[in-house]
Each structure stands twice: as structure tokens, then as C-alpha cells.
Amino acid sequence: MSIELEFCGATGEVTGSLYVIRTAEHSVLLECGLIQGGRAAEERNRDPFPLPIEDIDAVILSHAHIDHSGRVPLLVRRGYRGPIYTQNATRTLCEIMLPDSGYLNEKDAEWENKKRAKNGKKPIEPLYTQEDAENSLSQFESVRYDELVEVVPGVTVRFHDAGHILGSSIVELRFADGTHTRTLIFSGDLGYRDAPVMDPPYRPKHADVVLMESTYGDRLHRPFAETMEELGSVFEVASANQGNILIPAFTVGRTQDLLYLMAEHFDEWGLGDWTIFLDSPMGIEATEAYAKYRHLYGVKLFGPDSHLPDLPNFHMTRTTEESMMINQVKSGAIIIAGSGMMSGGRIHHHLKNNIWNPACHLVIVGYQAHGTLGRRIVDGTDKIKLWGETYPVRASVHTIGGLSAHGDRQDLVEWYASFENRPPVYLVHGEPRAQNALLEHLKSELQAPAIIAERGQKIKI
Ligand SMILES: [Zn+2]
Ligand SMILES: [Zn+2]
User: Fold this and answer.
1) Which residues surround ligand 2, an ion (CB under 5 A)?
2) How far, in Å, CA of 90 to CA of 86, rounded?
3) Distance 118 CA to ligand 1 centre (A)
4) How far is the CA of 14 from the centre of ligand 2 (A)?
5) pLDDT number for residue 372
């Protein structure tokens, strides 16, 4: 049997997940993620795919995050008409996230073209549009956890819970030619053992080859109880100040984690004195997806027969009018709004109304990339600009680092340790420092045959 895997993305970096699997007669794309992180890197999204579109027979996605799914609409725009296999909750989340990604691409191109017009340069096309993204959705094939599906003759896929976000999967691929069977396990993104909502990742026992993410291969998360104390004390201080609390939140995962934690600690954190708003249309849709697929995780996030989180003073504000009503609340509101890195979205309106007020609190619960407004605030800027106006930063800024959707080094090493046969493990989806640290630990603790995957590298399975 001759099965080859080529590493085409998320090598030495965390975004742009993309692998090509070739059998004697077929080619399968494992992942089709967007490259993120600055203009130069993102230009690479426009490069040709690593094989002619007409040679691709099937696509498999581990989960809905854009760095794993975000080039699917581009693939379809360039002519791919075949199936896209993914777990059924992932499909639902892609229906929310891919059109939004298309919309953002259109806005980006519009902005770029304004600049180009001034300099007499030719306009550019968006990477893909909202319509391209909507067109791609009909090619999605839903697969349940543990279901076996043949994607091309001789290749079957099975998804297992990766515990990272709703629908996230560890991808098991089996190759059979009548006499031999070979198994490839791709970890996808692996969840954190103390994640509030998601269950811990599934632990496979056997594989011939493993691809494993390594995002936090050099880090141990702080104990979860400390993070809870930290969050609790923010509510306590804020309650004494009589201001509002703003929480910029990522649509999928972090928002639902927060809602669950607030319900869990409702009395302890004195949340009965507050009105809680989820002010994000996408965040609301994602929360509804968590309600629809509530059987996929162990904790109770929603009341029985309800699509609302189990919080008595909770409001989801979908329309612009409802969102604007929040502006009249001068104190006692907890406002969860996107975008997570404050690069756009409704959080800008709330910053405008609150950031200058020393009684207010801004609680940062997620990673802030370089170059974003969120990062500038975390780094201590004393003023920000919104719609051409300057506002002083007088609100208290709290950074809560312990809420992670990714496992840390301990999780990663323990996950690999469950493979009884110690198969070769290729590290992907990580920056070099994290990968080197993880490699050392896998070798010294488990004598694992671990290798850092390189872009363009081809291996036999
Ligand atoms: Zn992810
Ligand atoms: Zn990822």
C-alpha cells in the first residue's frame, strides 16, 4: 500500500492547517485553514493549492475555527465541487463562521482598494466573498462522532471528540487495501483538561502515524481554581465601583465558557446584582448551536427545554436597536461583545461609552495578537481612537490568562502517552519554541519518536 501525506500548512506556525493525503488513485485534503497573522503571511492564502483542484476527491475538516476551515470557500470559488466531511456540530458552526469570514474579506478588500485608488494602483479582489462561503455550505457532509464513513475507496474517516470547541474532532483515518490496514490519527486542536464546558479529549490507543498539535507545548496553564478566584475578585471590585464590566469575547467557545462559569458561580460572585448582556449576533448564533448540540458535552449550560443559558438576568441582544439600548445603562451591566481582540464589532460602541470611565472594568479573557486594539490596551496605552475620536483609557483593565481552549504541555504529553505502541508523532500547529519544548518532553518522558513537521515534507504512512 502506498499512502503519502504532505505537510502543506500549520508547520512551524499555528494557522493555515492543510495536509494532502495521496493514495494510488485518490487525493484527500485534510483541513483547509486560513493563514492568519499580518498582511505578509495572509498574502500566502492567495497562493495556488498544493495540487490541482480537479485532483481533489474529498476534504475533511477537524473543526470550525477559521485557521482550520477558512480556505474552504476559496477552494469552492476555484472550482472544487466534491464533498467536505466534518462533524455535524462543526458544520453548523461553519454555517455561521464562513459567511462572516467572507464578509470580512470583502470589507478588507474595500479598505485596501480605497488606499490603492489614491495611489493609482489596480484594485484587488477579495480572497472570497460571503456568497462564495454560502455556496460552499451545500457541499458539507455531516458525520456523527464515532461513525465510519468511506471518503474515497479504501479510505475511511472517523471523528472523536477533541474537547476543544463544540464539534471539534480528533480525525482517525484508516487506509485498507484488502491485505493491510494503516491508521493515521490527527489530533486536530486538543482541549484543556479543566475546560469548563467541553469534555476532555478522546484518547486513542493505537495508530501507525500521529499528527499532533503543539500550540502550548512550552507552557503549563495556571491552576484553574486560581483563575476562578481572579475572575470572582474582578466582579467584587467592580461591584464596589458601580460601573459596567466589558468582556470582549470570541464567538465560539470562550463566550459559552463564560456563560457557564457565571451560572456556576452566580451567588458566589454576586451576579444577581448585575444585568448580563450577550451583545453579539454571531455569539448568539454560536450559543444556540451549543444549545442544539448540548448532548455533545457533559455539563449543563442550558435550562431544561431552554435555549437560554441558565442565568436569570441574562439578555441576548440581536438587533442594532437592542444593542443601542445598552448604551443607556450607566452601571450594573456585564456586556459580552465581539470582537475578541477588539478589532471591530459592537465592542467598539461599548468602549466608546465606558473606556474613559474610571468606574468601569475591561476584562480580557483571550489571546490578543500583535497589531490589534486589544493588544495595545493590554500593553497599557493611555488612549485609543475610535471613529476618529480619541478616548482616554481610564477603566481598569484585567487580563485573565487561564481560560484556554487548548491543552497545555501536560495535556499534550498525556494524550500521546495513551498510544500504547508509541507511534511516530509529527508535531504541527505550533511555533518553533513550543514545538522544541514539546519535542524534548516527548523524547525524555516517553522515548517517543517525535519529529517537528516541515512545510513541503512528505511521509509514507
Ligand atoms: Zn481551534
Ligand atoms: Zn487551530
Assistant:
1) 67, 189
2) 6
3) 38
4) 6
5) 87
pTM to 2 decimal places: 0.94
60-119 per-position pLDDT tens digit: 999 999 999 999 999 999 999 999 999 999 999 999 999 999 999 999 999 999 999 999
Task: Please choose, from the candidates 339, 347, 436, the residue with its C-alpha nearest in 3D space to the C-alpha of residue 386.
Answer: 347
Give the cell for residue 85: 466531511
Q: Which ligand is nearest to the CA of 17?
A: 2
Using alpha carbons, select from 4, 6, 8 the residue that is nearest to residue 22.
Answer: 4
Separation between Cα atoms, residue 426 and residue 448, nearest integer Å: 10
CA 119 to centroid of chain Cα atoms? 36
Domains of the chain and CATH, by start: 4-219+405-455 (3.60.15.10), 224-399 (3.40.50.10890)
**Taking Cα atoms as reference points, which of 272, 267, 306 lies closest to residue 287?**
306
Residue 145 identity (one-letter amino acid): Y
**How is residue 83 written as a grid cell?**
464533498
In the block, residue with C-alpha cell 464567538: 251
For residue 422, the CA-to-ligand 2 centroid distance in Å is 24
Say if residue 1's pLDDT is above 80.
no
Residue with grid cell 499580518, as numbered in its chain? 38
* CA 241 to centroid of ligand 2, rounded, Å: 38
How close is the Cα of 213 to the center of ligand 1, in Å?
Answer: 10
**Ligand 2 mean position to 407 CA, how many Å?**
12
**CA of residue 192 to ligand 2 center, whole Å:** 13
The ligand minimizing its distance to the Cα of 65 is 1
Q: Which helix (H) or strand (E) holds 140?
A: strand 140-143
Cα torsion through 222, 228, 233, 236, rounded to 10: 170
